[in-house]
């Protein structure tokens, strides 16, 4: 029974995350999108780290930081804190917040290696600070 609850929960998180990814004009949004760093991701390649288009569920404020801030576990997977991210960008982001490094972005129809810094948008930072009752 626990497995079903977890997998249903993971499927829900997957859908929430996918819906945060950027829809690209003239591309099927059910098949491919861009992550927060502009890397191509393919819906079918969820958690596929052998794919150039694989992606994971990213916690905008990483779980390690939420633990540090003593945010209740029940809030960690709040929809505002979930997004789709190319697996390599998720790895390079690691536990960084709000500034992080990306390692992949799109160039035309392919992904290329980059090293580029990003900041989580101010409005989202504010929303998450409010949700998690953070004082920073």
Multimeric status of the protein? single chain
The secondary-structure element order is: HEEEHEHEEH
Number of helices: 4
Q: Strand content of the residues, in percent?
A: 25-35%
Low-confidence stretches: 1-7
How would you describe the shape? Answer: globular
Describe this structure in words.
By secondary structure, this protein is α+β, with helices and mostly antiparallel strands. It is 32% helix and 26% strand. The protein is built from four helices and six strands. It has helices spanning 2-20, 63-68, 87-93, 122-132; strands at 32-34, 40-42, 55-59, 82-86, 99-107, 110-119. The strands form three sheets. A two-stranded antiparallel sheet has the order 1-2. β1 and β2 (40-42) form a beta hairpin. The protein is globular.
Helix and strand layout, with pairings?
Layout: H1 2-20, E1 32-34, E2 40-42, E3 55-59, H2 63-68, E4 82-86, H3 87-93, E5 99-107, E6 110-119, H4 122-132
Antiparallel strand pairs: 1-2, 3-4, 5-6
What are the key terms here?
4 helices, globular, two-stranded antiparallel sheet, alpha+beta, 136 residues
Quick synopsis:
The chain is built from four helices and six strands; from the N terminus they run αβββαβαββα. With 136 residues, the protein is of the alpha+beta class.
């Amino acid at each position: 029974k626990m497995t079903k609850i977890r997998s249903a929960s993971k499927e829900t998180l997957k859908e929430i995350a996918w819906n945060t990814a950027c829809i690209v004009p003239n591309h099927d949004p059910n098949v491919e999108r861009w992550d927060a760093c502009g890397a191509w991701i393919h819906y079918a390649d969820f958690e596929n780290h052998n794919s150039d288009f694989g992606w994971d569920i990213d916690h905008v404020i990483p779980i390690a930081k939420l633990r540090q801030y003593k945010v209740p576990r029940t809030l960690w997977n709040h929809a505002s804190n979930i997004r789709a991210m190319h697996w390599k960008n998720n790895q390079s982001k690691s536990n960084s917040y709000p500034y992080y490094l990306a390692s992949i972005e799109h160039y035309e129809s392919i992904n290329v290696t980059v090293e580029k810094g990003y900041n989580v948008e101010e409005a989202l930072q504010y929303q998450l600070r409010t949700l998690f009752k953070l004082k920073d």
